[in-house]
Specification:
The complex is a heterotrimer. Chain B is α/β, with parallel strands linked by helices. Chain B is built from twelve helices and eight strands. In chain C, strand 9 and strand 10 form a beta hairpin. Classes of the chains: A mainly alpha, B alpha/beta, C alpha/beta. Chains A and B meet through helix 6 and helix 11 of A and helix 2, helix 3, strand 6 and helix 5 of B.
Chain lengths: 294, 291, 263
């Protein structure tokens, strides 16, 4: 038995489900490994290093084959450029731009998450709100956030707000939809048990529904983090003069291909690191996830 | 054949299709530098109506290209709102220009000349089309931008702080020139014909511009001087594309600004720019080889 | 029905009258699951509701708990119509349904906290945890316990509210034979001490006879009460009862009743 939301035809949830399936596979693999946590860590690290080494090797070969740094700079050229940008990059400074982007992600994604969870809970609590918002969110979800960019400039100007909005638009729908699904997927028996133990509506919501839905919501929050990084460039295309997305854009204008690579790799790394942090938070917040308790 | 791009589309781009006796397809790019990767990858044979930055960048990135033609010298204007009376008032204000464009370079030059540090203003990187709504909504206080956006900003209540002449040149990749000199020549001949027509009947150009801006022709401000079209006979003079001429000097100045920022590794010298200008096709026009 | 009879009926505690119910299969077709179920359960009585699977016995239990309302007939508890769950009617489910985000102690304290009786229930909670044999496991999470231990926690969690009526829905059906026997013994022991009214749903004849004062045998769908059999073996009982000849005889007659119904 599992306490996780049951599958719905929703694409977002399919993603959630595939996450869970992956989790299962991993745990099966884990059992084959010798020494618990350290074995895990070593195996994960080893496979990561192998994969990275393979990518870098192929990249290096391709760079030699193309022999044109404007098209494909070698890993060495990119590393040199990264070093320059870390120490003295002026407007293109890596640390500054990474900081700016990280803050934008935290605010935009965080705002989207808070709004998504709140709206999601409102939607399951009230069928009118559900009936009104569900089709709107479903209709709006496939629209690329970049499509809103010109409107956002007109409405919210050129400051930080439109960037937060774009990142928020990316994260809000998946979190809202997953919250609805997670709350709807809460084992009914948990709620019945609580009611027969004397819990009222609000107590059930606070002490049963929300903690029970938490694993599903947290998965969507993590997915949303990945999505927000993937729309960072879109957010930073409009009226930016800083950020990793802008840095990539600016480098493109000057055919500074190594800087484009540095920006892409930095975005990937930060997305990976934030995901890891969220996984740790998840393990701490919902230690029962996937433990088959019911 | 390759594809061809006209970024500002004021003059040649709009009329190219009707005049052209060669088959080519065009795509719009917002700024010249944005077209460079396309030229690099060979998808683009050349770019019309670009300014100085792509020449400096192309040089720094070892992209073999030649400047073969200059269509016009367009006014690039710093249009600002009423609160800004002089360069000193720009401090703390939000001023836009398309990133990496002539507008941004001119803004940097203007600030340096007037002893306003780059950090003192709040520079906003906006594409040409985004500048007009941003200005109208009050999100920016001004912009260094070319026609037609500059005219739209003036129409929206802005006033001119300074205007710099921005060359509009046509570049082709060296590879394309070597492989299809006849196509390049045919294109240049078309451009020459357009320019001759425009010089003879300037009103037709102004009418097209007014229509594009959706403004009555009479309201087109004085800003758009009618002598900006480059006469073919004078293209090789120091005023235009001649050796060590106005254009070459501005490319060097642009390159130096970009190199100083670290955007490109090094700026071209004036003789290196001279070498990037190839006027053989323009000379063939004056020699009457077009008909 | 005259006034005095009605008052007497109210006194008995639980009374079901003419319960009929059907379920829709989602395609507009309705299946009748219950047809005219009526019975009473007296105070402190241990009654098992038995029958083959699918006879609707769990549905009846759910109605008594207040989880669903019958389409026809009514369920009365001390004369009042049952419309919603209530802490006075505690439920032990087939699965423990413990809250994995709470430790054992907090699972047991869930009811008292919901009812605002935390302070006065602490001692009882600790006693019950000890009584079900889980002393020292107070700070464990449910998923750190075996299935049998989880069932013990579930029992303590329900009993801590001192329910007047304990509703048990095949609580030991999913357990292995040995754990089931242990749990049955535990239940008898605990019930002996707390003496609440019990309505126990099972499809296991032996279990029903071992635990109950009375068994109600339900027929196959649509369910109704086919037999009301008194089980008057002396208490306290233990698992050796199953070797008693009277037990063996009773078991075979109930089994015949079951078989007759399913054929």
């Amino acid at each position: 038995m599992t306490d996780l939301p049951s599958a719905t035809p929703d694409a977002a949830l399919e993603q959630v489900d595939s996450e869970l399936v992956r989790g299962h596979r991993l745990s099966r693999k884990r059992r084959l490994l010798p020494t618990g946590r350290w074995g895990d860590f070593i195996a994960t690290t080893a496979s990561l290093i192998t994969a990275l080494a393979l990518v870098v090797a192929l990249w290096w070969i391709a760079a030699i084959a193309f022999n044109d740094p404007n098209v494909l700079p070698s890993p060495e050229e990119v590393a040199d450029r990264a070093d320059e940008l870390l120490t003295n990059g002026g407007d293109l400074g890596l640390v500054h731009n990474a900081q700016v982007s990280l803050i934008r992600i935290l605010i935009g994604w965080g705002g989207g998450v808070i709004a998504g969870v709140a709206v999601g809970i409102a939607m399951v609590s009230n069928r009118w709100i559900l009936g009104l918002l569900d089709p709107l969110i479903e209709l709006g979800r496939p629209i690329p956030p970049l499509a809103f960019a010109p409107l956002l400039v007109i409405w919210f100007g050129i400051g930080e707000l439109p960037k937060y909005m774009i990142l928020g638009f990316t994260t809000f729908p998946i979190v809202a939809i997953s919250t609805v699904a997670a709350v709807k997927g809460v084992d009914r028996n948990w709620i019945l048990a609580a009611q027969s133990l004397g819990a009222g509506r609000l107590y059930v919501l606070r002490r049963v529904t929300i903690p029970a839905a938490l694993p599903g919501i947290l998965v969507s929050i993590r997915l949303a983090n990945g999505l927000s990084w993937s729309s960072l460039v879109a957010a930073e295309i409009i009226a930016s003069t800083s950020g990793l997305g802008w840095m990539i854009l600016q480098a493109g204008r000057f055919l500074d291909t190594p800087t484009i690579f540095v920006g892409i790799i930095t975005i990937g790394l930060l997305a990976f690191i934030t995901d890891r942090v969220l996984r740790v938070a998840e393990a701490w917040l919902v230690p029962w996830r996937g433990k088959g308790a019911s | 054949m390759g594809r061809f791009v006209a970024p500002t589309l004021i003059l040649a781009g709009q009329q190219l299709d009707s005049f052209s006796n060669i088959s080519m397809s065009t795509v719009d790019v917002e700024t010249g530098p944005a077209a460079l990767p396309l030229m690099q990858s060979g998808q683009l044979a050349g770019v019309a109506d670009v300014g100085e930055p792509p020449i400096a960048i192309g040089f720094a990135r070892n992209i073999p290209l030649k400047v073969v033609w200059s269509g016009n010298v367009t006014p690039v204007t710093l249009v600002v709102n009423k609160d800004i009376k002089s360069a000193a008032d720009l401090a703390g204000k939000k001023i836009a220009a398309p990133g990496g464009s002539t507008g941004e370079i001119f803004l940097k030059e203007y600030l340096a000349e007037n002893n306003v540090a780059w950090n003192e203003i709040e520079y906003v990187d906006l594409g040409g089309p985004d500048i007009v709504p941003a200005y109208s909504s009050g999100a920016i206080d001004g912009a260094f931008i070319w026609v037609p956006q500059s005219l739209a900003l003036l129409h929206a209540g802005g006033h001119e702080l300074t205007t710099q002449p921005g060359s509009q040149v046509t570049i082709f990749s060296q590879e394309f020139i070597d492989q299809h000199p006849d196509v390049v020549q045919a294109f240049v001949c078309d451009m020459a014909q357009i320019q001759e027509t425009a010089l003879k009947t300037p009103n037709s150009v102004w009418a097209a511009l007014a229509e594009k801006l959706k403004l009555p022709e009479s309201e087109l401000p004085e800003l758009m001087p009618k002598d900006t079209i480059v006469p073919v006979a004078q293209m090789g003079s120091p005023k235009y594309l001649g050796p060590n001429g106005a254009f070459a000097q501005q490319v060097v100045a642009t390159g130096e600004i970009l190199a100083e920022e670290g955007a490109i590794p090094q700026a071209p010298t004036i003789s290196e720019v001279n070498e990037m200008i190839d006027l053989q096709f323009a000379e063939a026009v004056t020699a009457g080889k077009c008909s | 029905m005259n006034e005095s009879k009605l008052a007497k009926a109210a006194d008995t505690g639980l009374r079901l009258q003419g319960i009929s119910h059907s379920f829709s299969d989602g395609r507009g077709r309705a299946t009748d699951v219950l047809a005219g179920v009526s019975f009473e359960v007296g105070a402190r009585e241990f009654v098992s509701l038995m029958g083959p699977s699918g006879c609707g016995k769990s549905t009846v239990l759910g109605m008594v708990a207040g989880f669903l309302s019958p389409e026809q007939g009514d369920v009365r508890w001390h004369g009042e119509r049952v419309t919603a769950p209530d802490a006075a009617r505690g439920v032990v489910f087939q699965k423990p349904h413990l809250y994995p985000w709470c430790e054992v102690y907090d699972n047991v304290m869930f009811g008292p906290r919901a009812l605002g009786r935390e302070r006065e229930s602490r001692d009882l909670a600790r006693d019950l945890i000890a009584e079900v044999g889980l002393e020292g496991f107070e700070r464990h999470r449910p998923y750190e316990l075996s299935g049998g231990m989880q069932h013990r926690v579930a029992l303590a969690r329900t009993l801590v509210n001192r329910p007047e009526l304990l509703l048990m829905d095949e609580p030991f059906a999913a357990l292995d034979a040995q754990t089931r026997e242990e749990m049955q013994a535990l239940l008898l022991e605990v019930w002996q001490r707390h003496r609440c009214t019990v309505l126990f749903v099972t499809h296991d004849i032996e279990e029903g006879l071992l635990l109950s004062d009375r068994i109600l045998v339900m027929g196959h769908r649509p369910g109704s009460i086919r037999a009301d059999i008194s089980v008057d073996f002396e208490r306290p009982r233990d698992e050796t009862l199953v070797f008693d000849q009277r037990f063996v005889d009773l078991r075979s007659s109930v089994r015949t009743l079951f078989r007759k119904d399913s054929s």
